[in-house]
Structure formats: C-alpha cells, structure tokens
Specification:
The chain contains 11 helices and 15 strands. With 384 residues, the protein is of the alpha/beta class. The protein has 3 domains: 75 residues, Winged helix-like DNA-binding domain superfamily/Winged helix DNA-binding domain (Arc Repressor Mutant, subunit A); 139 residues, Nucleotidyltransferase, domain 5 (2-Layer Sandwich), CATH 3.30.420; 140 residues, Nucleotidyltransferase, domain 5 (2-Layer Sandwich). A hairpin with a 4-residue loop joins strand 5 and strand 6. Helix 2 crosses helix 3, helix 6 crosses helix 11 and helix 8 crosses helix 9. The longest helix is centred in the C-terminal third of the chain and has 25 residues. The protein is globular and about 70 Å long. The two termini are 30 Å apart.
Length: 384
C-alpha cells in the first residue's frame, strides 16, 4: 500500500489502525493463515502484513501456528499465524421466566461450557437475579476462570429493553425500569449488554441457525408467549424504543387467547413441560394434540399475518416452546396464513433448541468485543 507524501501523522496512525483491524478480523474469520495468504485476502502488501503480524503478536492477539505434517515440504516452511481465540471469553445468558441458560464462548464463538436450570416455582424477580449472580460465579470457577477473564456478557430478558440496556417492560413486573448492567457491575468488570430475548433469538438464527442465508427475517416466538424479533437487511431492527415485534401487547390481535388454546391434558413423561408433551404427541400423530395445535395456530395466524403484511420478510423462523414440534409446524401455519396474506414467506422451524436466546447473547457479546478490536494490548494475565 503506497503512502503519499504530505499525509499527516494522525492520518498515518488511523490508516495503520485500520489495516491492523483488517488483518486481525481476517484471522478471526479463518485461522491459521500464512503471511502470503493474509496479503492476498486483505489486499495489503506483504511487507505491511509482516509488520502488522509482528505488532499483533507482540500485543498477544495472535500466535505462531505449527505446520501440519501433511503440508511439510522441502525448504523453509511458510510462516503461519492464528488468532488467539483462547485469550478471552464471553458469556451468553438467557434470563427467562422459567429457566436460566449460560453459555461460555471463546473469542471465535466456540462454546466451551454450558449450564441450564429451571428457576424454583414462584421465584421473585430479585431471587432470579441473585441466583444468576451466584451461578455466574460458580460457572466461571468450574472452568478455572475468574471475572477478569470475561470480556463481555450478553443477557436476554423477556420484554422491552431500551437503547441503554435498561429494562422498561417485561413479563416479570419487578424488573421494570431495572438497570441490570449496573446491578451486575460488582460481579462482572466488563461490558454487560442486555437485550430482548427474541431479538437475540433472531441474531442466533442469522449466525448459526435457519436464517444464515437470509437478511430479511422475522423470528416468531410461538408458545404461551407471542413475540417477534426482526432483522432487516441483515441488521437487527429494534425500533425507536426497543418495542419492535411485541405483537402480544395488542389485545385486538387476540394473541392473549393463545395460552388458553394450548391447554393440553395429555400424558406427560417425567421432566416434560406441558408444551414439550404436546409437541411430542403431535410428532406421534395424536389426534387430540393435533387438534390443540390446530386451534392454537388458528388463534395466532391473524397476528402473524399482520406481521407478514407489514414486513414482507424473506423468511419466517418459528422458535420458542413449540419449535420441538419440528417440520410439521411450517406447513400447518402456512395453511392458516394463506387466506390472510398476499403471499406466505418461506417458513423454517428453529433447531437451536433451548439455547437459542443464550447463543444470540453470545453473538451480541462477541460483536461488542469486535467493535473494540484491536485497541491496546491484551490484559497481562491473558498474554501468551
């Protein structure tokens, strides 16, 4: 890359910072790579890449990678470098009404530990936060990590969250107007990012789920609670105040009746919730369960049709408690949407299971880390 005479010092510094970010992000995308491969993939000159590689190695962001035995050839082997994904971690949290899910991820998105438990019945909002704090400490200790090893935490909660991360309206009334990042500041000396749970679900679907190849997506939570996360042109759409997709709030859509439509008195197996038992019975072809699901979809179809008409999404992803129904859920909903909309978008059923929200929280935390790369050296305890 040619630098013209007369360029000011701060412009050179900005250019170098940009090039450093380009190299580091390319290594995060694919590791390991040779210096020559990095020059080709980034469009930077080889001398520039060599200098940046030395700088990033000195900071602790990257390290030398060994040469695979199968790739050995006569002469000096090409230098190969890798991003140090193990240098730090992020945590994704699903702080739901009934359960807590924790995922621990390296900086490359690899999940290295997970925890899931149900909240005790009738837990208060304060008790759930206290349980979260205790479980986070134990979760990290089980991995021989401490709070300083965590670079960012993403947390999904039910209901609306404003741009500052303050919870402004939730299913858990005690959390209304709660500044959760501030409440957790003593436990986590890093960025804590709170987001609506269904918004995180659509991020997860776009990252590793059914919406990997789609940029205009509506992810609908189907179950006793109805809500929706929206992605437009590959970007999460939260709305001005974080309330985009909160379909269940409008009583005229009749979505409040959905919970009553899901009443199921069929036999449950040990450990099954009501919706889990219903989903299993539908998969087994139980006529009673199919009738319950038919009534439920008939109830929610007008609200989903209104969403489809307003957004015209490329893909509709069905997530939440009824996702275990699996493939039959899409055609059944399609039949009920067809008379109500101009056209029915492609429908997919989430396969991320109970970890969808927490996985989206991991993605949100990684995005926060990405935005700060690679400013400054790694903390001393994370150096090679």
């Amino acid at each position: 890359m040619t630098v013209h005479h007369g360029v000011r010092g701060h412009d050179l510094a900005a250019l170098r910072g940009l090039n450093t970010s380009v190299v580091l992000r390319e290594l995060r995308r694919e590791s390991p790579q040779t210096v020559g491969g990095l020059a080709a993939s980034t469009g930077l000159s080889r001398p520039t890449v060599e200098a940046l590689v030395e700088e990033l190695a000195a900071r602790g962001w990257i390290a030398e990678a060994g040469v695979p035995a199968a790739g050995r050839s006569p002469g000096r082997p090409a230098r190969r470098v890798r991003f140090r994904a193990e240098a730090g971690h992020v945590i994704g949290v699903d702080l739901g009404r009934k359960r807590l899910v924790l995922l621990l991820s390296r900086l490359d998105g690899e999940i290295v530990a997970r925890h899931r438990e149900e909240f005790p019945a009738r837990s208060t909002g304060a008790e759930r936060i206290a349980l979260l704090r205790g479980r986070l400490r134990r979760f990290l200790a089980d991995q021989a990590l401490g709070p300083d090893d965590v670079w960012a935490v993403g947390i999904g909660v039910p209901g609306m969250v404003d741009a500052t991360g303050r919870i402004v309206s939730v299913v858990v009334p005690e959390w209304t107007d709660l500044d959760l990042p501030r409440r957790l500041a003593a436990d986590l000396p890093c960025r804590v990012l709170v987001e609506n749970d269904v918004n995180l679900a659509v991020l997860a679907e776009h990252w590793r789920g059914a919406a990997v190849l789609a940029d205009d997506v509506a992810c609908v939570l189907v179950g006793r609670r109805i809500s929706c996360g929206l992605m437009i042109d590959g970007r999460l759409h939260r709305g001005r105040r974080g309330g985009a997709g909160e379909l269940g709030i409008l009583p005229q859509l009749g979505l409040e009746e959905a919970a009553r439509a899901l009443e199921w008195d069929g036999q449950r197996r040990a450990g099954e919730s009501g919706t889990d038992a219903l989903a299993r019975a539908v998969r087994e072809g139980d006529p009673g369960a199919l009738g319950v699901l038919d009534r439920y979809l008939t109830t929610v179809a007008p609200g989903i049709a209104a969403l489809v008409l307003a957004l015209d999404p490329e893909l509709l992803v069905l997530s939440g408690a009824l996702a275990p129904v699996g493939a039959p859920l899409g055609p059944l909903l399609t039949d009920r949407l067809r008379p109500l909309t101009l056209h029915v978008p492609r429908i997919a059923v989430s396969t991320l299971g109970r970890e969808g929200v927490a996985l989206g929280a991991v993605r949100r935390a990684l995005d926060a880390v990405d935005a700060e790369l690679p400013h400054g050296p790694l903390p001393a305890r994370m150096r090679p």
